[in-house]
Design a protein that fits this description.
The chain is of the alpha/beta class and 147 residues long. The longest helix is centred in the N-terminal third of the chain and has 30 residues, at 2-31. 29% of the residues lie in helices and 37% in strands. It has two helices and six strands, in the order H-E-H-E-E-E-E-E. It has helices at residues 2-31, 43-55, and strands spanning 36-37, 64-76, 81-89, 96-103, 119-130, 136-146. It folds into two domains: 1-32; 36-146, OB fold (Dihydrolipoamide Acetyltransferase, E2P) (Beta Barrel), CATH 2.40.50. It starts with a helix and ends with a strand.
């Protein structure tokens, strides 16, 4: 009886230990997780997913997005603001969809950005930024930019 009790106690302690160490590992994985990885999808799926993000942004707010596309920038004279984008073409390369992004750390334009049309990968948090007139747009915030 004593040996059975000891074995059960040891097994219980090992189970508790393994649960506590696996939860620490799960926290590390979740801190680096990507909710939607567009880099692993076909070009048709990527185009469709980005289209959905643009037309139904509320479904994606707060999700970590990873995407690969062509770098683009645009200076809006009215708002006096420069926008940066990651643009993805569809399978036939006739149409394109893109998302604006802001880097985690501010960079100097143009010296610290890739050239227009260069291939980039970004990873960041999907947000919806509202403007003063009530109209808004989807944007990847706190993005890490990889050339």
């Amino acid at each position: 009886m004593y040996k059975v009790f000891s074995r059960i106690t040891i097994i219980a302690i090992l189970c508790i230990f393994s649960l506590s160490t696996s939860s620490v590992a799960a926290e590390n994985v979740s801190a680096n997780r990507v909710d939607i990885d567009l880099t692993k999808m076909s070009s048709t799926m990527v185009y469709s997913m980005v289209f959905q993000m643009v037309t139904e942004p509320k479904k994606f707010i707060g999700k970590t997005i990873k995407m690969k596309g062509a770098f683009s920038s645009y200076y809006d004279e009215e708002s006096k603001r420069r926008f940066f984008g990651c643009v993805i073409k569809d399978a036939l390369a006739c149409c394109s969809q893109g998302l604006a992004f802001e880097t985690f750390k501010p960079r100097k334009f143009p010296s610290e950005y890739p050239s227009e049309g260069s291939s980039i990968t970004i990873v960041g948090t999907f947000e919806f930024e509202k403007e003063e007139d009530g109209i808004g747009f989807p944007i990847i915030k706190n993005a890490k930019l990889y050339k």
